Amino acid sequence: MQSESARIVILGTGGTIAGAGDNVGYAAGSLNVTQLLLAVPALASRTLEAEQVAQLDSKDMDHATWQQLARRAAHHLARPEVAGVVVTHGTDTLEETAWFLQRLLAPIKPLVITASMRPATSLQADGPQNLLDAVTLAGEPGAQGVLVAVGGEVWAAADVRKTQPFRIDAFEGGDAPPVASVREGRVLRWRDWPRGVALGLETIEPPVADWPRVGIVPSHAGVEPVLVHALVEAGYLGLVVEGTGNGTVNAALEAPLQAAAQRGVQVWRASRCQRGGIIGQPEGAWPSAGALTPAKARVELLLRLLVGR
Fold this sequence. Notes:
It comes from Ideonella aquatica. It holds the Pfam family Asparaginase. Keywords: Hydrolase. This is Asparaginase. Helix 3 runs parallel beside helix 7. About 25% of the residues lie in helices and about 20% in strands. The termini are far apart. The strands form three sheets. Strands 2-1-3-4-5-6-9-10 form an eight-stranded mixed β-sheet. A hairpin with a 2-residue loop joins strand 9 and strand 10 (about 185-190). The chain has helices at about 35-40, 65-75, 95-105, 125-140, 225-235, 250-260, 295-309, and strands spanning about 5-15, 45-55, 80-90, 110-115, 145-150, 155, 160, 170, 180-185, 185-190, 215-220, 240-245, 265-270. It folds into two domains: about 5-190, Rossmann fold (3-Layer(aba) Sandwich); about 210-309, Rossmann fold.
């Protein structure tokens, strides 16, 4: 059973969950993490610490914030008295941050990311319940890995993706079901907690300005290779093609991508389909990102290039 005395650290980064305004025209990141906690009376009895890492709209998430967030999360997770860490985040880039932290840290304690689709001042605010659920999950004995707690469901970092721009139930797991659910203060686990081998903080030690540049190239009807040429000339070392269907790539991009690869650029393919991932590896196809979304594939390729350096 969960103990209310378990110490949980809350790291704030802004996002809609900290927004002020109406359901569409709000300002993300307007409130600090302490204000968010005060809005949830049920958390008053919990043993919590709060720290503001950033205060931004997650559409503007950057590598420097990722670097700082990973360092602070690792610091608190290493403290023996801390049972788990919660990160409040915007929904737009949540899946990228989740995968970045899972690959770097693969924590044996729960590192829970939560968010909301309505600002804190909305009549339909979903943030308070999501935050309460996230704290509940972070204190759950045996829980581990980077987990996303939204709308009463718990998703693994590898699976979670935002599939709806407005509804409160905006997140899914592709072909994967939730890892768990949170119901009235109880964590109901359906699958094994996510595990992995941590790349380690040393992977991201270089200054952000020195990180390899990795971009996403969409494949679509009538596409021209202008973006491929521009990114290669700008010094990008990795390209993820957001392919159609099962990761297929428009023929107009093939020759420019081959030329890029000959210059040492790593080229991967992902699928723009929201549910499921790429199946198989046809002869001659670019390396597959598997079940990763294009955004998460870019994170994975970035980290692999950092490890390679």
